[in-house]
Amino acid sequence: MRGKIKINTVVDATSGEVLSQSEQMQNVKYFDEEKGYLFKLNQESIKTFPGCGLPEDLTESETARLYRLSLTMHKGSNLLCYRSGNVTKPMNTARIAGYLRLSTRRTLLFLQNMIHRRIIGRVKLKVGNSQETQYYLNPIYFFCGKWLNVNLYFLFRRDLDKLLPKWVIDRFSAYEKDK
After folding, report:
1. Are 139 and 47 in contact (CB under 8 A)?
2. Counting C-beta atoms within 10 Å of the first and last residue's C-beta, which end of the chain has fewer, N or C?
3. What is the mean pLDDT of the chain?
C-alpha cells in the first residue's frame, strides 16, 4: 500500500491570501485479496492501452469485430455477455454470430482464429447437466474495469506475465499454489 498526501489550500480570490490549508493522507491499495490487482497499465484506466495494440496482421473486419465485441464485456471480468431482463448472461457462439451479423460457421472460424492468437479466451464450464462455453477478451487489448482478477490473469497469464510487475505475478502465483 502506498500513501499519498493531499494538500487542500483555500485562497481568497481577490487578495490571494491563504485562508486555510489542510493535509489528508490517502492510501492507495494496489492489491485486494477479493478483487485482485489494481490494473492501470501506463496509469490509464481506459479500454485500450497505448503500446498494446492488436496484432498488425489482423484484417480491418477482424479488428472491427473485436471492437464491437469489446462493447459487450462485463465490467471487471472481460466476459462477453448480454443482458436478459435483470440478468447478465454469457454470450454463446450463436449469440455472438447474431451480434456480429455473421453465420455460425464464419463466427466459429473467427473465434478459433482469435483464440489461437490469444486475443479471445474460451472457458468451458459444466452447469448442471449441460456444458456452457464462455468467451473473454484479453485485457492487454481491451479491458473493462480497473481490477485484474485472478481468473482473468490465469486465462491470459502467458501474455500478462510480460507486462505485469514481478510482485503481482508472485501474488497471483500464490493462488495457484493454494489449489
Report:
1. no
2. C
3. 87
Closest CA to 165 of 148, 145, 142: 148
- Cell numbers for 142, please give them: 481491451
117-154-68 Cα angle (round to 5): 45
Does the structure show a pLDDT above 50 at 42? no
How many CA atoms lie within 13 Å of 107's alpha carbon, on the beta-carbon side?
Answer: 16
CB within 8 Å of 139: residues ≥ 6 apart: 39, 78, 148, 152, 156, 160
Alpha helices in 51-92 (DSSP H): 60-70
> Does residue 37 fall inside a structural domain?
no
Q: Which three cell numbers stand for residue 15?
A: 487578495
pLDDT > 50? residue 46:
no
pLDDT of res. 144: 86
Q: How many independent structural domains does the chain possess? A: 1
